[in-house]
Amino acid sequence: MQELNLPPFERRITTKDDKPFILDVIRRQYVALTPEEWVRQHFVHLLIGHKGYPQALMANEVQLKLNGMSRRCDTVVYDRTLRPRIIVEYKAPSVNITQQVFDQICRYNMVLQVDYLIVTNGLAHYCCHLDYAARSYTFLQEIPHYDQIK
């Protein structure tokens, strides 16, 4: 797998039927090791290990209904009252972060109404804070620490 612009972590990888699987610490199970999953696991470990995000307040592959269709958010971070606060969208390192990617995460946010949107391909990371009262958004220089999102 490709080196990413994220801190290394102690990963657990196994093989089943000649295919690699990586332990997803959020779902507590091994999942297929795709380039997008490689990014997800690195980023989840960044949030937990470096940004103080409680593992118990994070969920991967969160299902939601949008215009009658089932969709899945890659990762949702909740506050201590279990209100969704952040949606994270992952792409493989070979996928450029484009307006279409932001459109996708914004559609998910029509349902969840979070305060932060994060998009990453493991090489580039974008985080924006949404201000609903001012009807505006601000791109942040770095991913906020969990204590800052309250």
Describe this structure in words.
21% of the residues lie in helices and 37% in strands. The chain is α+β, with helices and mostly antiparallel strands. It has a single domain, classed as tt1808, chain A (Alpha-Beta Complex), CATH 3.90.1570. The strands form two sheets. The protein has a six-stranded mixed β-sheet, sandwiched between helices. It has a three-stranded antiparallel β-sheet with strand order 1-2-3, covered by helices on one side. The model has no long low-confidence stretch (mean pLDDT 92).
What is the count of β-strands?
9
The gyration radius over C-alpha positions equals 15 Å
Residue windows where pLDDT falls under 50 for at least 5 positions:
none
> Which H/E pattern describes the elements?
EEEHEEEHEEE
Identify the CATH class.
Alpha Beta
Helix count, per DSSP? 2
What is the helix fraction of residues, given as a range?
10-25%
| Helix/strand class | alpha+beta
Name the overall outline. Answer: globular
Termini, distance in Å?
35 Å
Strand percentage, roughly?
A: 35-45%
Largest sheet: 6 strands, mixed
Mean pLDDT: 92
Examine the secondary-structure arrangement and name the CATH architecture: Alpha-Beta Complex
Number of domains: 1
Major sheet strand order: 4-5-6-7-8-9
CATH fold-level topology? tt1808, chain A
Topology record:
Blueprint: E1 13-16, E2 19-24, E3 29-32, H1 35-51, E4 58-66, E5 69-78, E6 84-90, H2 99-112, E7 116-120, E8 125-131, E9 136-139
Parallel strand pairs: 6-7
Antiparallel strand pairs: 1-2, 2-3, 4-5, 5-6, 7-8, 8-9
